[in-house]
Design goal:
alpha+beta; lpxc deacetylase, domain 1
Length: 270
């Protein structure tokens, strides 16, 4: 068992999570309750994703970075996640520390149960998702933000080593003028500038490491991988996401499953 400790970005204060190898489906435990990851639903997707179990006994915020590490390493079972906190720690602002911990558990990877069944283009607001069937994973994001970011793109083809080296280290980001609004909404109570990218007046704020090339796009790709993990993905096939966001991704994936654009293999475990 490995325990990871850090600060909770949104609620503030200390947070910890314990991960361990365990047979069967991925399980999440919190304060005496336990549920399978596949049975959780999204209850909030505002600057982070909050999921809840079917009976609402478990609620967990900021899950997307851990789930990105899970899916990026191809882990669709054999994992137990336990925490007494309602929010996961931010750690490095990406998924690298989660991925390092998961790799040390030596859980064998397995194929994704999700696949693109037919070509389609689905849209939510400014977010556009193009689905194409295929034998292998291919995820691509295209984003455009105000200066100093501009247009960026990033792509991942399902390789765990590539995820670990290139996608997992990409930090979460935002702009200084968004901070007041986030605080007013009860979010971003504890911001560690070493673990985030905060842009202000065409540059990063003092205390932030400068962004690496395409780091913003790579973090959006990380978020997409984490969002898809809740449904058993990333899928076999291609998804090109233009201006994706947590809320739009979850809405589009739910529609894609309803309409047969995405298909999920039947899980034989009880």
């Amino acid at each position: 068992m490995i325990t990871l400790r850090g600060e909770a970005l949104h609620r503030g204060g200390a947070a910890a999570v314990c991960i361990s190898a365990a047979p069967g489906p991925i399980l999440i435990a919190q304060r005496g309750a336990e549920a399978k990851l596949r049975d959780f639903r999204v209850v909030r997707a505002d600057r982070g994703v909050t999921i809840a179990s079917a009976d609402d006994r478990i609620r967990l915020d900021l899950v997307e970075h851990l789930l990105a590490a899970v899916a990026g390493l191809g882990l669709y079972g054999g994992l137990h996640i336990a925490t007494d906190d309602r929010e996961l720690p931010l750690l490095d602002g990406g998924a690298r520390r989660f991925a390092e911990a998961l790799r040390s558990l030596a859980i064998p990877p397995s194929p994704s149960p999700l696949a693109v069944a037919r070509a389609a283009t689905l849209q939510r607001g400014a977010s556009v998702y193009r689905f194409t069937p295929g034998a292998f994973v291919r995820l691509r994001v295209e984003v455009a933000f105000r200066p100093p970011v501009g247009e960026e793109e990033a792509e991942w083809r399902g390789d765990a080593d590539d995820f670990f080296a290139r996608i997992a280290p990409a930090r979460t980001f935002g702009w200084a003028d968004e901070y007041t609004a986030l605080r007013a909404s009860g979010r971003a109570a504890s911001v560690d500038l070493e673990s985030v990218l905060v842009f202000d007046e065409g540059a990063v704020m003092p205390g932030c490491r400068p962004p690496a090339p395409s780091e913003v796009a790579r973090h959006k790709l990380l978020d997409l991988i984490g969002d898809l993990a809740l449904y058993g993905g990333p899928p076999r096939g291609a998804i090109v996401a233009v201006a994706p966001g947590h809320a739009s991704t979850h809405a589009v994936v739910a529609e894609a499953l309803r309409e047969g654009v995405l298909e999920r293999a039947q899980d034989p475990s009880p």
